[in-house]
């Protein structure tokens, strides 16, 4: 990602903040689907869903980022990523556009960013109107990997 | 065959054919595990569907929550299924999803068999059987041992597949955690482990009092009879039972709560616990059978010197329970019953002789549980034996070493489950001992399983007896001590 060329990001909103993940890692974006809860799993595991016959694990980004549940879940969407052979669905408040960002706008995640978000972020992009937080899906799945008990 | 092959290969499988003329054809079909199809039972708990592989499922039960067969030990539910205690695991409570399903009418229970244990899973609803395609869980859910995978049901819903073994382990872990919340958990669980062979009591009500108990190991069966089935026969109450008559005894008489001529008022249905003694059954009528409790405390001395009372026991809730000496009561009430005993003898039934006093033999009695020290100790004293008591195997060995040389023991009577050194270890140590290697050894246990029997024999016990079977103990002692010079 350190290439000088432009990078495409899938963006989404959580709590009026804009986040983005590399479009290369995104398989698709869908509206919210029925979730089967997984009792005893970490709270950020929102459940399992049936994605055209394949089972994906949904991760609630709000729970992951230690934020309160959304007041309005009408626009809730799923960003489906494939990571290490697993299908992962990130539950987000609202889906945004696919945008192009330039490496020159990139900065390390500021120290003031809450640790609960910083752990999954590689940095921020300064956009015209606001700031976008780059989420690293690899960091998200790593959190749940065996050995690192949650 | 081509269609099959194409379809198998489409899902990444392999089909191999090997034909030998005149012998036949063997077909090998390999299908990736992710496509393994298993028949499963789909159950529902907390509005969510779960799948239980049929291969683990034994049967389905519908239990009335008010049934006597549903019992509670240390806050855990058990069901008396054909005489065996079946531990019940409440799925929604175990999964931490809200209240137990128990409050809601009849209980749906799926009886499952894990590698080590058979237990029942309480679920809200049993849906249907389905052939399910097992899909693995994503790697970061693999830590959850209670699920073995997930599947997509016919309606498109995703259901988790329960791992029977993992669920059992998890349910146990939950209980241990709940226990450790108690202040003195460490000491108590430790003690409980060693005294577990005494722990269970049947609590019942007589004469309006709910404070009576008998050791569960003495209870052969629980029955409930219509009052009309109980008939008066002379001075006795009897009821047709199996192929004969079951004498019904009233504890009120034995305890002096009622004069011998008066009978308690029976309700329409009379709960009875049946005790077996010398191959004969005796029923004890009670007002209500309340519960089976596991008590870790010891039986203290009787508060009053009333006959028929073994002692008093404090329940976990601090309630006093009077432990009834049913065997003692039977001894007293059946002694005039010689005619019946004679009749049995004529029918060729073996009847052990009344305990004649044995010669003054020395017995080393190894037992940690005060209840049994008292119970069995009394039997030994009654036989006129010289009894030395040791609370565990280690002490027993010490006593053998210190005193065994001067005044040799004739027999060792030992419990199996004891702290410090258990009965098996003691037997091995005695058999390896230079001077006591030939000492007759009797194992006494409530854990009477074939595997234990073999272990006991291998450890060096001559005889393996069930605790509280007084007659067997007496006969065995007679045999062992009578034959020795």
Descriptive notes:
The complex is a heterodimer of chains A (150) and B (485). The two termini of chain A are 29 Å apart. Chain A is built from three helices and eleven strands; from the N terminus they run βββββαββββαββα. Chain A is 11% helix and 46% strand. The longest helix of chain A has 8 residues, at 137-144. In chain A, a hairpin with a 2-residue loop joins β4 (45-51) and β5. By secondary structure, chain A is mostly beta strands. Chain A has a six-stranded mixed beta sheet. A five-stranded mixed beta sheet of chain A has the order 3-6-7-5-4. With 485 residues, chain B is α/β, with parallel strands linked by helices. Chain B has twelve helices and 29 strands. In chain B, β27, α10 (423-431) and β28 form a beta-alpha-beta unit. In chain B, α9 runs parallel beside α10 and α10 (423-431) packs parallel to α11 (450-459). Chain B starts with a helix and ends with a helix. Chains A and B meet through β4, β5, β7 and α3 of A and β12 and β13 of B.
Summarize the structure.
The complex is a heterodimer of chains A (150) and B (485). Chain A is mainly beta and 150 residues long.
List the strand order in the largest sheet of chain B.
5-9-10-8-7-6
SSE-based structural type of chain B: alpha/beta
CATH homology superfamily of the largest domain in chain B: CheA-289, Domain 4
**How many β strands of chain A by DSSP?**
11
Fraction of residues in β-strands of chain B: 35-45%
Can you tell me the overall shape of chain B? globular
Helix content range of the residues of chain A, please? 10-25%
Report the CATH topology name of the largest domain in chain B: OB fold (Dihydrolipoamide Acetyltransferase, E2P)
End-to-end gap of chain B: 81 Å
Outline the biggest β-sheet of chain A: 6 strands, mixed
Q: What sequence of helices (H) and strands (E) makes up the elements of chain A?
A: EEEEEHEEEEHEEH
Number of helices of chain A: 3
The biggest beta sheet of chain B is recorded as:
6 strands, mixed
Uncertain runs of chain A are 146-150
Give the N-to-C terminal Cα separation of chain A: 29 Å
Mean pLDDT, all residues of chain B: 76
């Amino acid at each position: 990602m350190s290439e000088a060329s432009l990078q495409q990001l899938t963006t989404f909103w959580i709590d009026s903040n804009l986040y983005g993940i590399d479009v290369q890692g995104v398989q698709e974006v869908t509206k919210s689907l029925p979730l089967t809860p997984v009792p005893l799993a970490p709270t950020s595991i929102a459940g399992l869903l049936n994605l055209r016959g394949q089972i994906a694990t949904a991760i609630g980004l709000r729970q992951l980022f230690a934020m309160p549940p959304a007041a309005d879940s009408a626009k809730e969407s799923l960003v489906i990523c494939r990571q290490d052979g697993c299908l992962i669905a990130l539950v987000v408040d609202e889906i945004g556009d696919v945008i192009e960002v330039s490496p020159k706008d990139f900065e390390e995640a500021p120290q003031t960013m809450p640790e609960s978000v910083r752990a999954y972020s590689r940095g921020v992009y300064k956009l015209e109107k606001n700031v976008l937080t780059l989420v690293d899906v690899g960091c998200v799945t790593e959190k749940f990997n065996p050995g690192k008990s949650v | 065959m081509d269609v099959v092959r194409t379809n198998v290969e489409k899902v990444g499988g392999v089909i191999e054919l090997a034909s030998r003329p005149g012998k036949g054809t063997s077909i090998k079909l390999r299908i990736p595990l992710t496509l393994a199809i298993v028949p499963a039972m789909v159950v529902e708990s907390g509005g969510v569907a779960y799948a239980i592989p049929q291969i683990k499922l034994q049967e389905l039960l519908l239990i009335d929550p008010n049934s006597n067969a549903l019992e509670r030990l240390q806050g855990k539910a058990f069901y008396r299924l054909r005489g065996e205690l079946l531990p019940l695991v409440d799925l929604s409570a175990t999964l931490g999803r809200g209240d137990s399903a128990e409050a809601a009418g009849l209980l749906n229970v799926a009886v499952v068999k894990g590698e080590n244990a058979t237990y029942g899973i309480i679920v809200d609803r049993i849906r249907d059987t389905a052939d399910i395609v097992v899909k693995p869980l994503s790697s970061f859910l693999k830590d959850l041992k209670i699920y073995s995978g997930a599947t997509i049901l016919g309606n498109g819903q995703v259901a988790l597949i329960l791992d029977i073994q993992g669920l059992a382990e998890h349910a146990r872990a939950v209980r241990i955690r709940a226990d450790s919340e108690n202040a003195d958990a460490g000491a108590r669980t430790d003690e409980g482990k060693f005294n577990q062979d005494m722990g269970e009591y049947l609590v019942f009500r007589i004469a309006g009092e709910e404070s009576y108990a008998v050791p569960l190991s003495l209870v052969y069966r629980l029955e409930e009879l219509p009052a009309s089935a109980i008939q008066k026969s002379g001075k006795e109450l009897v009821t047709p039972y199996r192929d004969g008559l079951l004498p019904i005894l009233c504890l009120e008489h034995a305890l002096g709560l009622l004069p011998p001529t008066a009978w308690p008022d029976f309700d329409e249905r009379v709960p009875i616990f049946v005790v077996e003694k010398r191959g004969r059954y005796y029923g004890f009528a009670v007002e209500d059978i309340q519960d089976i409790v596991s008590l870790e405390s010891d039986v203290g001395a009787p508060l009053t010197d009333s006959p028929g009372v073994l002692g008093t026991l404090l329940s976990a809730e601090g309630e006093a329970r009077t432990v009834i000496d049913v065997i003692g009561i039977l001894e007293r009430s059946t002694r005039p019953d010689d005619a019946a005993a004679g009749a049995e003898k004529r029918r060729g039934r073996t009847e052990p002789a009344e305990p004649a006093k044995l010669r003054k033999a020395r017995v080393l009695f190894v037992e940690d549980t005060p209840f049994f020290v008292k119970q069995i100790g009394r039997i030994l004293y009654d036989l006129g034996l010289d009894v030395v008591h040791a609370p565990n195997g280690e002490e027993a060995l010490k006593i053998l070493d210190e005193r065994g040389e001067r005044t040799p023991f004739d027999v060792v009577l030992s419990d199996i489950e004891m702290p410090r050194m258990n009965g098996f270890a003691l037997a091995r140590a005695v058999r390896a001992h230079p001077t006591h290697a030939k000492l007759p050894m009797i194992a006494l246990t409530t854990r009477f399983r074939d595997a234990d029997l073999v272990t006991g024999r291998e450890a060096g016990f001559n005889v393996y007896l069930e605790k509280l079977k007084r007659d067997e103990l007496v006969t065995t002692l007679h045999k062992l001590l009578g034959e020795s010079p």
